Amino acid sequence: xxxxxxxxxxxxxxxxxxxxxxxxxxxxxxxxxxxxxxxxxxxxxxxxxxxxxxxxxxxxxxxxxxxxxxxxxxxxxxxxxxxxxxxxxxxxxxxxxxxxxxxxxxxxxxxxxxxxxxxxxxxxxxxxxxxxxxxxxxxxxxxxxxxxxxxxxxxxxxxxxxxxxxxxxxxxxxxxxxxxxxxxxxxxxxxxxxxxxxxxxxxxxxxxxxxxxxxxxxxxxxxxxxxxxxxxxxxxxxxxxxxxxxxxxxxxxxxxxxxxxxxxxxxxxxxxxxxxxxxxxxxxxxxxxxxxxxxxxxxxxxxxxxxxxxxxxxxxxxxxxxxxxxxxxxxxxxxxxxxxxxxxxxxxxxxxxx
Length: 354
What we know:
Structural class: mainly beta
Number of domains: 1
Distance between the termini: 33 Å
Largest sheet: 14 strands, antiparallel, barrel
């Protein structure tokens, strides 16, 4: 049930863990390069966590999308340098890793409560061909499903992923992004071939002018229900205070509330699809694969460091908190060809990036 105690435990755990992570991080000085505000859709292409934040990531004031089906965006580290840049960032700054932590809670509905958290590391590799460098990404995701025993659903689910992504500018208007990753998603009882997934994709980004970014390509998801996901969409920024993300299936409209010399504050309205895929064992020991899908409407607030005119990457910390309404929820058991539909519920999502 949606109780004050559950909300308190959720927020307390998140703040404690994010505080521990921040204490271990070290910020680096900014260096010259293109401002991240000039990269629009580069943030909107999927990275590694497919149905949760990869296809959801969206550009915040200085950073943000891609997607669970199109969502967590390419961070500002992946911005290219202009061909006429007079100086490059020093190697220490260029290779500085980035961390993301997020947590999500969907209160009980149809007897099912879901709690999840994600920790992501994005590590730049040596820029053999010049900036931006290839990125090594490592992610751990934990999902807890509190459900009645008669549904025979797993309780604790884990997902580990390791992959690489690279974005290269072809000229002033075209950018190509490629990615490849391996995923191990399991309840730690079913650890066979069903728990492994391999994903990859290639996207082209076209920028006809400073207001529009267009993207198209395809993503191999490694999942039986949606083996290939087409990527098509656009980002329109008619003014510095308004961003319209038309990237499907997670569109978003963002409004700049305030912009100081230190931070930008954004509000946004969005929609989209989310979910996951794991291998687990039924109570009788039979192997099974669980798919989860949902649709959501959200409203959120995001605080990001202000970007300087020639900043290579953000050196500060970004925060986000989001509330929403979740519908069209269902579990699918692949081998049993069974479906469990859930009632609509609410959503609380929060995260930190540094």
